[in-house]
Amino acid sequence: MQNLKEKLISFIQENTPPNQLFQTIINSLSFFTTSDLQEMDNVLYEPSLCVILQGCKKVCLGEHTYEYNPQTYLLSPTYIPAKISICETSPQAPFISLKITFSLEQIYETWKQIDCNETKINNQLQKGMFFAELQFDLLEAIFRLVKLLKKPQDYRKLLAPLILKEILYILFCSEAKEFLKQYTLEGSITSQIAKAILEIKNDLTKPLKIKELARKVSMSQSSLHHNFKKLTALSPLQFQKKLRLQEARQILLKKHTDIYQVAFDVGYKSPSQFSREYKQMFGISPKIHTKMKT
Description:
By secondary structure, this protein is of the alpha+beta class. Helices cover 46% and strands 21% of the residues. It is built from 12 helices and 10 strands. The strands form 2 sheets. A 6-stranded antiparallel β-sheet has the order 1-2-9-4-7-10. A 4-stranded antiparallel β-sheet has the order 3-8-5-6. The chain starts with a helix and ends in a 5-residue tail after the last helix. The mean pLDDT is 91.
């Protein structure tokens, strides 16, 4: 397995710019490299599988801090705000990781095609992230996906979706099975909270009405609040605020634009409140962020 990791490290270093997040021509696949240690920073995990090939990272979700490295992987089936820090890297051995994104629909479709009749709902809700040991069959499938970057477009278009489905299948056949399955089972608390998360994200600019949200996901308001916080470590309102600020940061980093307009675009009615909460979250004012490059 170490040989595969070394090949992936060489490929990424030879084919991507250093010290940045790099989106590949396969939409679901991206690389990240850095030679700099990174203090705790707010990020938004999307539905994805994250693998570290070199270095070490800490992930803080609520009161819990997890550390993972090239021996483990991180799986997040939904959108989860968290804090991260790069705790092991250097110019000689930079931090190198890759991310494979997918949707809840892809998880569900893969689960439907698995020949099993398990429909037992486990309502022991856990955090929205799963960490486990990286196995050879998973890394080998990832390696084949990365190799597609050197293939012709028609080749990639045909095989990339098949390998992505294979990766999800491998996860369903691993210790991640029970964790993933609860996101697919209608009526499980996990799937209801995942739907609530998508409702908030899809209507990010609208005022959040907890009563209406609870009705949409068939939960009581108290149950929604309790279980939402258990999965994300945030209340629905806190979650919405973090998503709005993350969206604003992405806009500001990608283009020089009017800060006040960005505030309104992500749902803020008060630009001063936006600037204050932005600086509280990122430690830097939105005005300064507009001068930074991705």
